[in-house]
Automatic annotation (TrEMBL):
It is an enzyme of class 2 (transferase). This is Aminotransferase. It comes from Schleiferilactobacillus shenzhenensis LY-73. Keywords: Aminotransferase, Pyridoxal phosphate, Transferase. GO terms for molecular function: pyridoxal phosphate binding; transaminase activity.
């Protein structure tokens, strides 16, 4: 019987050297990045027995039945082939109608709408289409960190504007100063509202002041409005209505219809700009999953108010959680949307949100996200997701209160 030949030791060493050389030849921007803090921390503490997870932005509701039935029907009818890269015509029409009926924005479904594999792909396709190496992107923080690595992967430079002293709203004077300081390189600004991680949202007046700063400049406004249907105290106002000629709007069904895993988002904007974003989308994924598109069409067309019961539940949870945290000594910016509380840690615990979150996880068995994960202005805070049952929230509040009392 022939014995397998072993590679010479020198060959193994040589392979290792080659591997290191290949890694060194990979995209240089990756060396400046690390995996998601949020996902890494969630995995780190998930092994703690009986821990209550108030970490990820995952609605605890099920996708509405009429949406699921539409997807089942598509599968049974063998609707399993490629669609147009921009998405099913019926889905684009339904999405266009939804955006107009809800927010008064008008987008031609044939030329101004692109369906994507979730808003994450929409952000990547958009930034890839507009950025050249050396361009700057103004990012108000604290903010969901996705925009930062995608900017860097495309050779761009994130320019942070800390909003912590301004009620977590981008101050137009600070925006103007950031544009002036980077006037030779600024390509875009990012807005995300209602905001992850703070739950704060922008009023029409806020948006008009921002629009006044950038109007007429060759600067894109990338407006991520995925939480638009979870606005609590007033009707959501889209930046696409205020500044349509410069704004690229991102939205989808993940939060409004509890469809995070279906991965259907949308990008909307001026036709010529959307043609370029659509090209990047084609090169990335060809088209979004067909039966998921059918489900999203049903959601936009016949589920325009599906978010209403979720919104009521989130408001009830917020109204229980915020005063409970304030009573314990946290300072909280009251959320006006989404399903997050961004709570400032009492001074006696120091400034490290990582130390506090780890202690809370191991001692109180409550998992939250350290505020430092969300950029400048975030350290010293924790983000608590209340996309969890009221029973879980009440138990978590009891455990946090006991932890705080033990650390007087």
């Amino acid at each position: 019987m022939t014995q397998p030949r072993l590679a010479p030791k020198m060959g193994l060493l040589g392979n290792g050297v080659i591997m290191m050389a290949l890694i060194d030849h990979m995209k240089k921007e990756l060396s400046a990045l690390k995996p998601s803090d949020i996902l890494a921390f969630n995995q780190e503490i998930s092994q703690i027995p009986d821990i209550i997870q108030l970490t990820l932005g995952e609605p605890d509701f099920n996708t509405p039945d009429h949406v699921k039935l539409a997807a089942i029907g598509a599968i049974q009818q063998n609707n399993s082939h490629y669609t147009a890269s921009a998405g099913l015509p019926g889905l684009r029409q339904a999405a266009s109608d939804f955006l107009f009926n809800k927010y008064g924005t008008r987008y031609d479904p044939a030329t101004q709408l692109q369906m994507t594999a979730g808003v994450t792909e929409g952000v990547y396709a958009t930034l890839t289409a507009i950025l050249n190496p050396g361009d700057s992107v103004i990012i108000p923080t604290p903010i969901f960190p996705l925009y930062i690595p995608i900017t860097m992967l495309n050779g761009g430079e994130p320019v942070f504007v800390n909003t912590a002293d301004d009620g977590f709203i981008l101050d137009p004077e600070k925006l103007a100063a950031a544009i002036e300081a980077h006037q030779d390189s600024v390509k875009a600004i990012v807005l995300n509202f209602p905001t992850n991680p703070t739950g704060v949202t922008y009023s029409r007046s806020d948006l008009e002041k921002i629009a006044a700063v950038v109007r007429g400049k060759d600067i894109f406004v990338i407006s991520d409005e995925i939480y638009s249907e979870l606005t609590y105290t007033s009707t959501h106002v889209s930046m696409g209505e205020i500044l349509p000629e410069q704004t690229i709007v991102l939205n989808g069904v993940s939060k409004s219809h509890a469809m995070t895993g279906w991965r259907i988002g949308l990008v909307a904007g001026p036709a010529d700009i959307m043609a370029k974003i659509g090209m990047v989308h084609q090169f990335m994924i060809t088209s979004a999953t067909t039966n998921a598109q059918v489900a999203a069409e049903e959601a936009f067309k016949n589920g325009q108010d599906d978010a209403a019961p979720m919104r009521r539940a989130y408001i009830e949870r917020r109204d229980y959680l915020v005063p409970a945290l304030q009573k314990m000594g946290f300072t909280v910016a009251k959320p006006d949307g989404a399903f997050y509380v961004f709570a400032k840690i009492p001074d006696r615990f120091g400034h490290s949100s990582w130390d506090f979150a780890r202690a809370l996880a191991h001692e109180a068995r409550v998992a939250v996200i350290p505020g430092a994960s969300f950029g400048p202005g975030g350290d010293g805070y924790i983000r608590i997701s209340y996309a969890a049952s009221m029973d879980q929230i009440k138990t978590a509040v009891q455990r946090i209160a006991e932890f705080m009392a033990q650390h007087q």
